Amino acid sequence: METRGIEQMFDFQRLPNDRFILLLLLLYSPVGVCLMLLRIFIGVHVFLVSCALPDSIVRRFIVRIMCSVLGLHVQQNSPRLRDKTARLYICNHVTHFDHNIINLLTSCNTPLLEGPVGFLCWARGFMELGQGVQSRAELTETLRRYCSSPAALPLLLFPEEDTTNGRNGLLKFSSWPFAVSDTIQPVALLVKRPFIAVVITFKTSSVIHC
Prior knowledge:
By secondary structure, the chain is α/β, with parallel strands linked by helices. It has a domain at 74-209. It is built from 5 helices and 6 strands, in the order H-H-E-E-H-H-H-E-E-E-E. The protein has helices spanning 19-52, 57-69, 98-103, 119-123, 136-147; strands at 72-77, 88-91, 155-157, 183-192, 198-204, 208-209. Strands 1, 2, 3, 4, 5 and 6 form a 6-stranded mixed sheet that branches. A hairpin with a 5-residue loop joins strand 4 and strand 5.
C-alpha cells in the first residue's frame, strides 16, 4: 500500500512546473485579465443579490446561476441521501468558500470560530456567535442549544479546522463538533480545477444518528 505524507495534502505552489503549460498560461493572460475584471463586476452583483433577496430556493437558484458565470459550477450527487431533518452537517474543508458553496444547495449556518466580527462576519456569510463564548465547552453548549431550536437552520461545521487540497486525505477530525447534535449528515466536497473554471461537486452520505 502506498504511504501518503501530509505534504501531499497541501499545494505549496499555484503555478504548474510544465513549461508548455506555463507558456499557454502566459498567452492566455490578456484574456484572463479581461475575464477577471468582468467577474469582479458580476461578483459585486452576486453579493448585492444575496443581500437583497431573502433566503429561499429562488435566491439560491439565481445566485447559483450567477456563480456559474464566475466559474463556480456546483453539482450535487446523490440528493436522495440527504436527510432534511438533520440538524448538523459535517464536511471536509477544501476552500475558504465551502460554506458559501453549500449554501447554494441548502440553507444552513456556519458559525464564525475565529476572525473579525460585525459587518465582515455577515458579509462573508458566517453566523456570529456573539460575546461570551470563550472555551470549547461553552462553544459546544451554545451550538447545541441552537440546534435544539426547531426554527433554526441546520449548522455546518468543519472538524478538520483547516483547508487541504482534498485529493489525498483528511486532517484528523476534532471531536467536539460531533457533540453538538445527535443527528449528523456527512457531506463530502470535491473540487476540480480545469484550465479556467472551478467545479465543485457536492456529495452526501447516509445520515448518522448518535
